[in-house]
Amino acid sequence: MATVGAATGIVIPGATMNPAQAAAAQAAGVYPQDLELVTVTDSSFVLTWYTAGSAAPAIPYQPSQEPMPVATDGYVRYGTDPNRLDRIEVQRGGETAYHSAEVTGLRPGTTYYYQAFSADVQVPARLIPELTYPAGGVVVPTNPTDAQLLQLLGELLSSGVVNSAAPGSITTLVPPRGRHLFTIALANDLHIGETVSGLVIANFPPGFEQQPGLPPYPVVMTEAMTQDAARRGAHALLVAGDISSAAMSEELVDSKQLLDKFGTLHLGGELGPRSYVVARGNHDQPKTGAAYATCAAVDGAAGYFDCLPAVYDLPQGTLTQTDLGGMRLVGLDTTTLNTPSGAIDDAQFEQLAEILAENPDQPTLLFGHHPVTDQAALTTIAGPGFDLDRTDAARLEALYAATPGVFFHHSGHTHRNRFTSSPVATNVEFLEVAATKEYPGGFALLKVYEGGYMLNFYKSDTALARQWSQTSSGEYLGLYPAYTLGTTADRNHVVSRDFGCLAPLSANGL
Question: Is the pTM of this model over 0.90?
Answer without folding.
Answer: yes
